[in-house]
Amino acid sequence: MKRRIAAGVAIAVLVPSLLTGCVRKVDETTGGAQTTTAAGEEKSGTKSTDQDGAAKDTANDTTESAAAGMTESSSGSEAEKKKGPDASAAGGSGEVVVYNWGEYIDPDVLKIFEEETGIRVVYEEFETNEIMYPKVASGAAAYDLICPSDYMISKMLKNDLLQPINYDHIPNYENIDPIYIEQSKGFDPENKYSVPYCWGTVGILYNKSMIEEGDTVDSWEILWDEKYKDNILMQDSVRDAFMVPEKMLGYDINTVKEEEVRACAEKLIGQKPLVQAYVVDQVRDKMIGGEAALGVIYSGEAIFTQRENEDLEYVIPKEGSNVWIDSWVIPKNARNVENAEKFLDFLCRGDIAYKNFEYITYSTPNKAARELIEDEDIRNSTIAFPTEEMLKNCSVYTYIGEDGDALYAKYWDKVKSE
Fold first, then answer.
1. pLDDT tens sequence across 135-164
2. For strand 275-279 and strand 55-57, is the pairing parallel, antiparallel, or unpaired?
3. Closest Cα partner for 220 from 290, 279, 282, 274?
4. Residue ranges of the chain whose pLDDT lies below 70
């Protein structure tokens, strides 16, 4: 799920629903985590925040199966036959243990999979990559499928926590658009360990009625234009904030060269007198309300804002930007690998990917799902589905290590304190 990446911590931000207009978000200081297990039983927990703003999970997570009496279907439908042998013929225990972001799958999808295969889904939710990672790294829990973000997959690979995926067992993988498979090489260089699930970009949202005649919004440079003083909104997120000058100056968005990070900090400090505010969710609200002319925003939220204010437009600047991808991976200690492969293949099916797209509303990398989208505005939206040309200068965040996090934190503090 789209991350708010701070120094060493990512905070989940759920975009507003494109189809219902329902705004949902996970705040880093309040709110309870929910864990959904096999039969849909929910366990609630709380989350606290330490002095550095790093979210800590205090939920009573469990990987045990939920309520007894789960009905296992052995339907003889064509859909089931297509999926191969039922759970009794599969390796493992006849279940698949899934660990995913909150509100990041249609609950009906879990039920359909269970009905078609007889494989029970034990389902748990996490709120940030940083909550998920130690549970997996410690081996305290054995999950069969996890959906981390790009940079976290990079970290998990570095620490030898993942196993290669046997794509011969996932024929529906062919539905994944090659554009996103290519983008995934930024964190999974050989495309051996991950299957893209949802994705998006970071760009500039602007109010056409507030942009001066003759000005073209196609570059990050406009965020340094003095005529828009007090009408510029920046992301209150270290990696997203630094990404802007990094792209402007031609640097790698994952640079850990101190002279480059310092140069970006100086660029941001020079911009500060023009900035109305460093915000996250408020970019959406302020832009809808006409309170600013320009704002750095996530693509999923941009689509929603356009439905609320017809003067708003979104652009990926010509220098490029961040494209983020959340993907499915199989941990090394997975106990039900064959069942995980069945579930992963099921998620890559066009009709199922479309069902998830309608529910969670993030852009889907699934070509077959996109063909099923009836709303022409969404199906043809270059915000939801930018062209290959639009993405040519975009890149993914990768794990920069503890020293990298500390370096960015050092210069982010300088930016915020000036």
1. 999 998 999 999 999 999 999 999 999 999
2. unpaired
3. 274
4. 1-92
Percent helix, strand, coil in the chain (nearest 5)? 40, 20, 40
Which tokens belong to 45? 């927990």
CB-count exposure of residue 200 (10 Å: 0-12, 13-18, 19+)? buried
Query: Do 3-199+325-379 and 201-323+390-395+404-417 show the same overall fold?
Result: yes
Query: Is the C-alpha dihedral spanning 374, 377, 381, 383 positive or negative?
Result: negative
pTM here is 0.71
pLDDT at 301: 85
Pick among 2.40.320.10, 2.60.120.260, 3.90.800.10, 3.40.190.10: CATH of 3-199+325-379: 3.40.190.10
Cα–Cα dist 386/47, whole Å: 36
Per-residue pLDDT tens digits for 180-208: 999 999 999 999 999 999 999 999 999 99
Q: Residue 194's closest CA among 159, 165, 160, 161?
A: 165
Tokens of 4: 């708010």
Containing H/E element for 323?
Answer: strand 323-328
